[in-house]
Amino acid sequence: MKIHPHPHVAKLAARLQIFKRSLDVRFEGELFRFINPQYSKAVDIIDGTGAIHAAGRWNLVGAARLSYTALEPDTALSEALAHVRYFRLPLSKALPSVLVALRFKAKRVLDLRDGNVRRGLKLSAATITNLDWRAENRKGSEAVTQAWGGAFAGAGFEAVIVPSSADPGGSNVLVFPGNLQPGSHFEVVSEVRWPGK
Question: What pTM was computed for the model?
């Protein structure tokens, strides 16, 4: 199905340009992600190519390399189960899954947990957490969160911290591997090693 670009995509990018680098914050710490064992090689976890093949809340298929991670292991689990819960499938359909920890350091991070930042961008917390992006895509339209994701990538942000839609009180970190700057890093803390391999 063809997805039509969001009608305000240019306005969103222009809105970001107004702020130049004033919204940038630094981040250094651990992130978490549940991953299908089939894609548990370190390079598969951090390269963001999964977003090239599958749409998500913040990306259309093929838009940009993007790695969805969480600040908390509980949030990572909620996010891993979100798809099956949305379609009311048995939770077992999301399993097996492997929890990995990642180390991330970056200088150009946008923190959308900050209400002042959201107000400046005119992006509400309700839109971030409640918008049914799948329904928008089924209607053939890019969801506004997906348009924002493209704008964030295009503006050169290395990552964006967002409230989680799957875990109230939790936070996700959207890492754009293609935007990592010198001195930044994104790596798996401990590589998954399977017995006999």
Answer: 0.96
State in Å, rounded, how far the first CA of the chain is from the last one.
40
Residue 98 buriedness (CB in 10 A; 0-12 / 13-18 / 19+): middle
Peptide bond into 5 cis (omega under 30): no
The pair of three-digit structure tokens given for residue 6, joined into one six-digit string:
């969001």
DSSP string covering 112-162, please?
A: TTSHHHHHHHT--HHHHHH--HHHHHHTTB--HHHHHHHHHHHTT-SEEEE
The domain locations on the chain are: 9-179
Q: What is the pLDDT of residues 4-17, one digit of tens each?
A: 999 999 999 999 99
Residue 175 · residue 187 · CB < 8 Å: no
- The candidate with the shortest Cα–Cα distance to 55, out of 124, 130, 150, is 150
Q: Indicate the fold that domain 9-179 takes in CATH.
A: Diphtheria Toxin; domain 1 (3.90.175)
CA distances from 187 to 45, 75, 86, 98 (A): 9, 19, 30, 16
